[in-house]
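Tutorial, part two.
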Amino acid sequence: MIEAVLQVADLAKSFGAFRALDGVSLSVEAGQLVALIGPNGAGKSTCFNAINGQLRPDAGRVVVAGQDVTGLAPHQLWRHGMGRTFQIAATFGSMSVVENVQMALIACHKQTGRLFRPATGLHRASALETLARVGMADQAERPCMVLSYGDIKRVELAIALAGRPRVLLMDEPTAGMASGERAALMEVVTRAAQEESMAVLFTEHDMDVVFGHAHRIFVLHRGRVLAEGAPDAVRQDPSVREVYLGNTAEASA
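Running the prediction step on this input gives:
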């Protein structure tokens, strides 16, 4: 049996009397893309933030590569091999594309003390190699402020991949992108996951992206896992169709 790179067990989080997460358990193996979906208010963002250390869970465990990392801050989790991209992508707009990735590599190598010295050449080759993986090498010298939003998303992915994460959390990775851009980005993510034996957990509202790219799907409803399994099984699950997919499942089948 393959051991999961990311294991989440019985995660719970309440805000006053409201129980946002109620015993959520999930796992992601190396090379897998796993989708976390559900209706608005299901607990997806809370789950992501509890896994990523932006929220401290009331109970439960988060384990990365066999190590309990529950409650660690995001920067500590990054050192343990957890990366993240956000629904609203952000880069240093006045810096070039390659400089943004170089900044990530400088941080990875704990060289931030050199930022007040010439850093133009630091890890440039590695940064360009990473940009090539996401299809952005030809725009390496452009300032990020002039890029389209789809390209900003690719740069954000390159920044995340620069740290060679064991686990990558992606919060609506294709939000704001055109349909063709969405498929292309997810193909890059799939290839990176397989090449790096990386576990990817992502949320997404576009069901074409979910059912077209996820190896497994977890469905949250009212803070609990309503269903989980392969895409076809989840698509046909009556409870999932009732609370979330509705006619979408039939249209996508």
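The CA atoms of residues 179 and 209 lie 9 Å apart. In part three we will examine how such features are distributed along the chain.
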